[in-house]
Design brief:
About 40% of the residues lie in helices and about 25% in strands. It contains five helices and five strands. The protein has a five-stranded parallel sheet with strand order 3-2-1-4-5, sandwiched between helices. Strand 4, helix 5 and strand 5 form a beta-alpha-beta unit. Helix 4 packs parallel to helix 5.
């Protein structure tokens, strides 16, 4: 059983959010900590000029509300919203917080991603802890 579990959350239609949380709960020790983490990708400078003023703040507020609602339904869970490149940020956060398991969903790949999605693939290849991938 694991005591410090990270569940990266991607709010995309084909991601398995509920199954990932269920798996994390099943693999958790009785006193485990489960952290739901969402990474807001940084927008290129040229794209920011085309977004309405306050877009980032509104997006952060909406994401925080969704993460909070998800975490409320999971005993011992908390949530974190960070900014950066998703794969690298997940790995850095896991290392800094001594995570012993990452439960990550992977979308159905296209031809360019034969086995795993690019974020899941990066996490699997570089994580210093156990990784459970959901399809």
């Amino acid at each position: 059983m694991y005591t410090n579990i990270l569940v990266p959350i991607a709010f995309e239609g084909d991601r398995a959010i509920t199954p990932a949380i269920t798996i994390a709960r099943r693999l958790a020790a009785e006193d485990a900590t489960i952290t739901l983490l969402h990474v807001m990708e940084q927008l290129p400078g040229y794209a920011i000029n085309y977004l309405p003023e306050g877009y980032r703040d509104e997006a952060k507020a909406a994401l925080t509300a969704e993460l909070s609602a998800l975490a409320e339904g999971v005993p011992g869970a908390s949530f974190v919203l960070i900014e950066g490149h998703s794969g690298r940020s997940i790995l850095d956060w896991a290392e800094a917080h001594e995570v012993d398991l990452i439960v990550i969903a992977s979308h159905r790949p296209g031809m360019q991603e034969v086995l795993l999605g690019s974020t899941a693939s990066q996490v699997v290849r570089h994580a210093a802890c156990a990784v459970h991938v959901l399809r």
